[in-house]
Amino acid sequence: MWLATRAADAFKSRRRVRALVHRGVFQSGSADQLFMKVVNGPSVDVEITHIWFATQPPVHLLNPHRPLPTRLRPSETFETWVALADVLNVEGVERLGRVLLSDGKMIYSRLNKTVPPVGFVAGSGRR
Questions:
Q1: How do strand 59-60 and strand 46-53 relate by DSSP bridges?
Q2: CA-CA distance, 57 to 121, in Å (whole number)?
Q3: Where are the beta strands (DSSP E) in 1-127?
Q4: Does pLDDT of 27 surpass 90?
Q5: CATH numbers and ranges of domains, the chain
Q6: pLDDT of 51-73, one tens digit each?
Q7: Which end of the chain, N or C, is surrounded by fewer C-beta atoms within 10 Å?
Q8: What is the pLDDT of residue 2?
Q9: 13-17, 45-49, 94-98: least confident range
Q10: How far is CA 110 from CA 12, 19, 24, in A?
Q11: Cβ neighbours of residue 54 under 8 Å, at least 6 residues apart?
Q12: CA dist 112 to 3, 38, 44, 94, 95, Å?
């Protein structure tokens, strides 16, 4: 039983950071945007230092409304965006998102399939 408890504790303490990408527009009628949401796992703080799309050339998300670096507490979310026109017409761009953490770990994005049709940009972006 001791070994099972230790294994469960180790599994829970793993850093599970996810990066999710979806297309959307602001209600103000702006052009199409690509939104990248970073969701921290339940156990430790992480610091995001860079976010970009690994296209040729790379498109870095240098959004003055969502400055980097930023720290996420456990289970906290951060979201930023870039105009879709700034990203070359690339098939599967949702899987080309990259997030670099301060410890050097790189997170790869996937398509966010659970986005409601109307909502808010996650995270305050003020840190």
A1: antiparallel
A2: 26
A3: 18-24, 33-39, 46-53, 59-60, 70-72, 77-83, 97-101, 106-111
A4: no
A5: 15-111 (2.60.40)
A6: 999 999 999 999 999 999 999 99
A7: N
A8: 66
A9: 13-17
A10: 22, 7, 15
A11: 96, 97, 98
A12: 36, 11, 23, 8, 10
CA dist., res. 117 & res. 26, Å (int): 11
The answer to whether the beta carbons of residues 38 and 19 sit under 8 Å apart is yes
Token reading at 41: 């796992």
* Residues in Cβ contact with 1 at an 8 Å cutoff, skipping those fewer than 6 apart: none
Averaged confidence pLDDT in the chain: 87
Tokens coding 21: 């990408």
Give this prediction's pTM: 0.82
- Cα 114 → chain centroid: 14
In angstroms, the CA 86 to CA 69 distance is 22
CB burial readout 46-70, b (16+ within 10 A) else e: bebebbbbbeeeebebeeeebebeb
Please give the radius of gyration of the chain, using alpha carbons only, rounded to the nearest integer: 16
Residue type, 83: A
